[in-house]
Design a protein that fits this description.
mainly alpha; four-stranded parallel beta sheet; 14 helices; 4 strands; globular
């Protein structure tokens, strides 16, 4: 299946009935007698399982609306690797898919249910491939400098990071290039370690805070020059991660942009209102979670429809 061929009516029916489907699936899983399901609940806890299901459902809606099987596959490669890291059998997912189809058939019209259930058939057929890709995902292959930066971030060692970055800066290796080649890759590794439960949330937050302080440190040494243009950077759909936004902000400021970093958790209406008020020359969205892409699409549709009052490049 290269793309999801699902009618708008079926997508609309799924979205309007998702609460009932979600409640049915969760209740079914909690009361299930299958060993694989009991192992998942024992390992994750009921609340974490519930949050996992909600995240999947948002990603499912985004994937089928955007006709993107690859998005759904990437999400499940991450989910499989996360469960593998906790020594949970990923055979559980086949049971989960079956239970979803039960409640989709229960609450959706027959023709709509058939289209949506095809997606779960796709996921079942991709099961072995997702396992294979998830195993590869657990192998971090970083060069020595990225590994050193990652370890310094996780230790919160700002002085050590500054010494390393200063030693690497040359006229041909600017801080902006170091940001792209080292800091971004190191933070990607940090995110992967967190996904695999190799580090705690506290460690991940420490690395993020350390990165923010490093970016602010080098910002103080920038030459004060007139701003060339206005940039508005944000995320849509309750994005949880701000590292990408911080790196983008640091880079744009070095290119003399006046930058507004807008709250990534703001409702779509507030986000659009802020863009119209600020009238930027450049708008950049940073998204790391597939479940936010449906919200992003809605915001982009509104922005493209407002070209008569908003003349900005959108990335």
């Amino acid at each position: 299946m290269n793309q999801f061929c699902i009618t708008f009516a079926s997508i609309e029916s799924l979205e309007s009935n998702m609460f009932k489907i979600s409640h049915g699936v969760y209740t079914h899983l909690i009361g299930a007698k299958e060993i694989a399901v009991k192992e998942v609940i024992a390992a994750l806890g009921e609340n974490t399982l519930h949050n996992d299901l909600l995240l999947f459902e948002k990603t499912l809606l985004s994937s089928i609306t955007l006709a993107s099987p690859s998005m759904l596959s990437s999400f499940f490669e991450w989910r499989y690797s996360h469960y593998m890291s906790k020594k949970i059998s990923v055979g559980y997912f086949l049971t989960e898919f079956q239970i979803y189809t039960i409640y989709i058939k229960k609450y959706l019209h027959h023709s709509h249910a058939l289209e949506i259930c095809d997606v779960f058939g796709f996921l079942s057929r991709m099961h072995e491939k997702h396992i294979s890709h998830a195993k590869k995902r657990t192998l971090l292959q970083s060069d020595d400098h990225v590994l050193e930066v990652r370890n310094l971030l996780l230790q919160g060692d700002e002085k050590g990071l500054i010494r390393l970055i200063d030693s690497l800066q040359t006229p041909f290796n600017s801080f902006t290039k170091i940001t792209d080649t080292l800091l971004a890759k190191a933070m990607h590794d940090v995110g992967t370690l967190w996904e695999l439960s190799e580090i705690s949330v506290a460690k991940e937050h420490l690395a993020t805070a350390t990165l923010h302080n490093i970016l602010e440190h080098y910002k103080r040494y920038d030459k004060v020059e007139p701003k060339s243009a206005k940039a508005f950077i944000t995320s849509a759909g309750q994005e949880l991660h701000t590292v990408g936004l911080q790196l983008i902000k640091a880079t744009l400021e070095r290119y003399r942009y006046e930058v507004i970093l807008f709250d990534p958790n703001a409702p779509d209406e507030d986000l659009l209102s802020a863009i119209y008020d600020y009238r930027p020359d450049l708008i950049i969205f940073s998204q790391t979670i597939p479940s936010t892409l449906l919200s992003l699409q809605r915001v982009l549709t509104q922005l493209h429809a407002s070209k008569d009052i908003l003349d900005a490049k959108i990335l």
